[in-house]
Amino acid sequence: MASWQAHVFTTLYKLTLKPKLKGTRDPARVRRLLVTRPFALPAGVRLTPGEVGGISGEWAETDTNPRGLLLFIHGGGFVACSPVTHRPTTSYLAKLGFRVFTPDYRLAPENPFPAAIHDLIQVFLSMTGEPPVPVCLAGESAGGGLCVSLMLALRDAARPMPKAAALFSPWTDLACTGDSIHSNEKKCAMFYADDLIYCAKMYLGGTPADDPLASSHYANLAKLPPLLIHVAADETLRDDSIRLAEHARRDGVKVELKIWPVVPHGWQLLAPRLPEARQSLQEAAEFLT
Fold first, then answer.
1. Cα–Cα–Cα angle for 199, 115, 52, rounded to 5 degrees
2. What pLDDT shows up at residue 99?
3. SS3 content of the chain, % helix, strand, coil (to 5)
4. At 45, which helix (H) or strand (E)?
5. Yes or no: is domain 4-288 CATH 3.40.50.1820?
């Protein structure tokens, strides 16, 4: 059963954030709307600016990091957000024992596909080093989709792969063909279909939406590492997760899919206040290690 906090935050998003995002075609305005409110860091967690593979970003860590290295890829529709906006998620992952790096990858429309993927390849290969050390991968929304694109690029180049990946509501079909894009439009706490379609066009920059590296829904997923997928039942991107799990299993990949009731898209960002957010991140940490 969903917590009372999940009902409150979902209703709050529907009444405040979703109407403001509706019809917004200015990336600068989207970026302003998705700024995270200040919050208290978990005890013992520190945040440090850093650079990995020539890409700037932020480390979240504690004095001991028994779960090892984690590359976290933030969401934001490919056009917004940063390591700063996703501190509620990354700091909690650090509290759970990871040394987390969140890169400030290039955003669209100024830097369309495949700029972000090129940045992430540099970061991941620098984190793994030579000889390679294990690195886990996690990402949310557009960042979840970029996680899969990154793994496909690494696989096809015969480079080291992540140990495992945790994907939170990954956006994997930029053609937006999943039924939930429209059937969940009224129930979703954040997005309308037209706004997702517009963000996809800004990111693609003329690349076909069914390009397998941009939209992993159209890719062969064989030889990817184990995947954990968490998605909200009522969000517009629900079917991207369901179909990703189906296709991964078809291609021989180990997958765990969990569909969460009531919670809004990107609920892991609410870790300081939402029990389901902390539970999702705890389950991800256990899966990744």
1. 120
2. 98
3. 40, 15, 45
4. none
5. yes
Residue with token string 């030889």: 223
Bin 128: left if φ > 0, else alpha if -120 < ψ < 50, else beta: alpha
- Identity of the amino acid at 124: F
Decide if 27 contacts 111 (C-beta within 8 A).
Answer: no
What six digits make up the tokens of 267?
A: 């609920």
Of 59, 55, 56, 57, the residue nearest 69 (C-alpha): 59
Which residues of the chain fall short of a pLDDT of 50? none
CA distance 93 to 99: 8
pLDDT at 59: 98
Alpha carbon separation from 8 to 54, 179, 189, 272, 283 (Å, rounded):
41, 26, 11, 14, 23
What is the predicted pLDDT for the residue at 130? 86
pLDDT of residue 246: 98
Our CA angle for 59, 259, 91, nearest 5°, is 15
Q: What is the pLDDT of residue 119?
A: 98
Whether the full predicted model's pTM is greater than 0.90, yes or no, is yes
Give Dmax over CA atoms of the chain in angstroms. 51
- The domain ranges of the chain are 4-288
Separation CA 128–CA 243 (nearest Å): 30
- Per DSSP, the three-state class of 102 is strand
Q: Of how many residues is the chain composed?
A: 289
Tell me: the pLDDT tens digits for 252-281? 999 999 999 999 999 999 999 999 999 999
Instruction: For residue 247, give the nearest of 164, 168, 178, 154 by alpha carbon.
Output: 178
Residues 93, 70 contacting (CB under 8 angstroms) = yes
pLDDT at 125: 97
